[in-house]
Amino acid sequence: MDLNFTHEELAFRDEVRAFIEANVPAETRRKVLEGLEVSRDETVGWQQALYRHGWGGPNWPKEFGGTGWDPVRQYVFEEESAAGGAPRLLPFGLKMVGPVIMRFGNAAQQKRFLPRILSGEDWWAQGYSEPGAGSDLASLKTRAERRHDRYIVNGQKTWITLAHHANWIFCLVRTDPAVKKQSGISFLLIDMKSPGVTVRPITLLDGTHEVNEVWFEDVEVPVENLVGEENGGWTYAKFLLGHERTNIAGVGVSKRELARLRRIASEEKKDGKPLLFDPAFAAQVAQVEVELMALEITNLRVLAAEAERRAPGPEASLLKIKGTEIQQAISELMMHAAGPRAMRFRGSDGPGASPTAPAYAGRVGANYLNLRKTSIYGGSNEIQKNIIAQTILGL
User: Fold this and answer.
1) Is 355 among the domain residues?
2) Residue-number span of the structural domain to which 207 is assigned
């Protein structure tokens, strides 16, 4: 693989940088680069700006309204977006349900749902996990009973990220309890405004409201919102999880956070010298950087496979494991660098806030706590190691 960009790719990189500079407000950029929360409106506004420019689907083929970019351009866009302080693109529509609808949905579903993902009109949530079905997702119990032209859905989903912002949710539901558990699952698209849908917040350790419980009580879902075949949902779920795990790797974001770590370690002192000059600490930073470079190459290989319309294979599990380990390692080094100044949670006026903490150390503690989840969601890292052992090593 030639790791040097061509003149055309370098020109594209400059175009992306200029677009970000012109279309991401300075205050939004500041929030992203300092690890602060951005609002729903800021996130949607960025998606709408990309859509107006024809870049609403950076990883989508042209036939569905996407850019049709090759893997290198997708990589350049994601890296420059992270480095430039652009809000993250919501993965639930663009990188999860969108590809499922493209591959398994019918023409009417593609025409109805895909353009609204690109335009930012629809905010999707992922309805997979349940109180008794996390890593063992096939044990889910949310039921969908077919009654004429409707499914009646009853059950509970939990840890649903940003469901309080969403107007649609894609769900795995049990449509046949009498067969093998993987064989009786279907994939439904549910309007969050439907009667019987209730969203209840879950407050996290860092004091934020990011995830939710979602309850379904006799929720009516039209049969036309079934993706693919009834009881075929497990196949679609595995396809989606491959895309999710690739996205969790977060190479561009980790590179941005590594740069922030270096800034913090350059400001904080040990024995009168910047912490970054301490040999032991510098060695830890260098080790993370080496691992991130290796992850970057693997990510490019997966993107190349996706460009050829091949679903991510077991290498997506490698990306998920290593990507989340690197994210957590960087956040731990930030905590070490910022010391007691790090205990500043997202709510600047809430418990643990430190008004004397410098801007570069802002919310380090909250980010550290928040990133503990990454090795669990999308399939725990232990599950990913089992997948690798079975599919690659044949164990």
Assistant:
1) yes
2) 124-231
Alpha helices in the chain (DSSP H): 7-23, 26-33, 40-52, 71-83, 91, 98-104, 107-119, 233-248, 251-267, 279-307, 315-338, 364-370, 381-391
Residue 101 in domain: no
For 155: left if phi > 0, alpha if psi spans -120 to 50, otherwise beta; the answer is left
Quick one: 291 and 337 in the same domain?
Answer: yes
Residues 303 and 365 in one domain: yes
Q: Average pLDDT of each block of 10 consecutive residues along the chain (395 residues)? A: 77 97 96 88 97 96 95 89 94 94 97 98 96 86 96 97 97 95 95 98 85 98 98 91 69 91 84 87 95 87 65 74 93 89 55 53 79 80 81 72
Angle between helices 279-307 and 251-267 (to 10 degrees): 160
Smallest Cα–Cα separation from 378: which of 329, 328, 336, 323? 323
Burial 198-220 (b: 16+ CB within 10 A, else e): ebeeeebebebebbbbbbbeebe
Report yes or no on 244 lying in a domain. Answer: no
Residues with catalytic annotation? 244
* Residue 262, both tokens: 């270096």
Task: Give me the number of domains the chain comprises.
Answer: 3
Give the DSSP per-residue string, 161-182. Answer: TTTTT-SEEEEEEES-TTS-GG
Q: Is residue 103 assigned to a domain? A: no
HSE of 191 in the Cβ direction (CA atoms, 13 Å)? 12
